Amino acid sequence: KRLAEAGAGHGTLVIAEEQEAGKGRRGRGWSSPAGTGIWMTLLLKPDFSPSRASMLTLVAAMAVERGIRAATGLETGIKWPNDVVTGGKKVCGILTEMSAEPDLINHVVIGIGINANTEEFPEEIGSRAASLYLETGKRVKRGAVVARVLEAFEAYYRIFLETTDLSALRAEYETRLLNKNETVCVLEPGREWKGTALGIDSLGRLLVKPADPSAGGVKTVESGEVSVRGVYGYV
Ligand code: ATP
Known about the structure:
single chain; 235 residues; alpha+beta; 5-stranded antiparallel beta sheet; binds adenosine-5'-triphosphate
């Protein structure tokens, strides 16, 4: 963010060997020990409306998912909206933040944390965190993963820019969406409900058909304050 304010350009990528205060959404921590992971932030200075920026987090998830698959051959997928998952566990978290005026974006920073060569996790996240090393049994060259992720990001970002929404990416996103046609628990602040995830709309919202017939038809769930969980586990 400091670099962005000091004039660093669109497309600047910052990679850290260690994060002392890695974070997720809503003040949650992100475990990022030295030397093991890919802790990076991509700076964008787009000229579209701030209302479009939250969709970039789904574009980034698509890029990480494809990049990891290309670099390692692992079977991966996306847990809506932007967790990349392998073997039912989270291998990457993404946090997108924006600095904007009412109708223009100063910058967007997309923070991406990929557990690459992690050998063990702190106990509290061990049951739902995966690393590329633990899943493949092989150490990865982190630079190669970064390169594949950014190649994929460039390709998807170009498509996103044509409409500044996900209409042209939605079908591909859904082929990677692990929640599709599965029962999800929607955790809203102060309320929790279950339904079947049908896919996303062109703004990246999750379409969920409530299990409770009296709840009415398909709901569009916005990612801001909401998490989804599987019924039997994390996905
Ligand atoms: P969800 O819990 O639905 O994934 P979220 O999108 O809010 O919600 P993030 O902000 O992406 O989650 O990540 C924060 C959470 O990820 C932490 O609360 C912790 O449970 C977990 N976590 C922290 N470090 C790691 C890590 N290195 N690998 C996998 N999971 C982690």
